[in-house]
Amino acid sequence: MKLYVFETDKWMESDVIYPHDIALCLVPEKKKIYVWDGPRATSEKKTQAHEILDDVAGKYPLYSIIPVDGDTPPSITDCINTYVNTSFEEVEKIDRDPQYVVFFYMMLGLIVGLIVGYIMILRIIGWNKVPGQPLLIISTTGFANWVTQNIIVLIILASLFFVSLIFASLTQKIFLIITASVGVIVLTGTIFYFYLGIYLFDFKPGSPIGYYYLSIGAVVGFFFLNLLALLVIFTPMVISLWAIYTTTTPISWADWKEKRKKKAVVMKKFSVLDRESKFTELEQDLENETSEEQES
Question: 156-169: per-residue pLDDT in tens?
Answer without folding.
Answer: 999 999 999 999 99
